[in-house]
Structures are given as C-alpha cells and as structure tokens.
Amino acid sequence: MKTMLKEPYTIAHFGGVTSGADFVPLELRLNLIRTLAANKPIVIIGNGAIEKQSAVRLSREFANSVDATGLPLRQTMALIAGADRFIGTNSGPMHIAAAARIPGIGLFKRDDRYEIERVKWHPLYEKLRIVPVHPDFKQSETVELARQAWPTN
C-alpha cells in the first residue's frame, strides 16, 4: 500500500492485547503527540472498537491526522514502515516498528510487572526506546521522560 502522505509522518498506536492502553490517559496521549510530533502529520493505527474510538478522539484534536484504524495487517505494516517515528504502547505495532527500524518510544505500564515486561518485551531496535508510565507520575514527568527518549535523528 502506498500512502498519500508526501511528508514525514509519525505513527501513533495506543492499544494492545497484553496490557491495553488504559494506563495512558487521553490527555497524556494528546500531550505526547503535541510535544514529540509537533506539527508533523500523525497516522493513528489500531484495530477493534476500543482502538477506533480512541483514534477518532485523537484525530479530532489534530488537523494533520489520519485515522487509519481497521486496516488489514499488511496495510498497517506498510504505514508503519513508511513512518519516520513511532509513538505507542507495548504492542504488536511497536514490535513491527522495531523490525522496520522506525525510531520512537514504546510506553510500558510502570507497575509490579514492569521489570519483567521491560526485559521480556523490549523493542529489538535501540532507537525505539521504552518510556515507563506510572500512575503516580505527573503527566509532565512522563512527557519529559518521553522527550528525553525521543530520537532526534
């Protein structure tokens, strides 16, 4: 699948089966995209009713966003491979981004299983970095951790 996007874009995915994305509140998702992707186009991917609902809410906030939820896997993979950055949760799309060598951040829930999940599911690409999301962190702290982890080139 060829994308119609002519400029670099960031893929955003806030979902997943193992941990879901409930640990990343909507306001934090918005702040991460605003801070990390600035004014670049955002392509929001996902599958299923919950991820679609989240994508619609996010896409309303960004004039330069594309809701690309519900696509077949190969099309989603092509979108990921064509991106220049990834923002998302510990999920299949995060691992696809790592395999395609797309830099960015993978959000991991900072709970009692964090160390196990971090070791077991870390992205296998050094420029796709883990950012812990702890329920006691202020959003500004998580955004700052993400900004520090965000690849600059």
Fold and architecture overview:
- By secondary structure, the chain is α/β, with parallel strands linked by helices.
- The chain has one domain: Rossmann fold.
- It is 41% helix and 20% strand.
- The protein contains six helices and six strands.
- The chain has a six-stranded parallel β-sheet, with helices on both faces.
- Helix 1 runs parallel beside helix 6.
Quick summary:
The chain is α/β, with parallel strands linked by helices and 153 residues long. It is built from six helices and six strands, in the order βαβαβαβαβαβα. It starts with 9 loop residues before the first strand and ends with a helix.
CATH class: Alpha Beta
Instruction: Quickly count the domains.
Output: 1
- What Rg is obtained from the alpha carbons, in whole angstroms? 14 Å
Question: In percent, how much strand structure appears in the residues?
Answer: 15-25%
Oligomer: single chain
Q: Per CATH, what is the topology?
A: Rossmann fold
Describe the main β-sheet briefly.
6 strands, parallel
Annotation field: number of helices: 6
Task: Report the span from N to C terminus.
Answer: 26 Å
List keywords for this structure.
single chain, 153 residues, alpha/beta, Rossmann fold, 6-stranded parallel β-sheet, 41% helix, globular
What is this structure's SSE topology?
Layout lengths: L9 E4 L12 H12 L4 E5 L2 H13 L3 E5 L3 H10 L2 E5 L2 H8 L4 E6 L4 H8 L6 E6 L5 H11 L4
Parallel strand pairs: 1-2, 1-4, 2-3, 4-5, 5-6
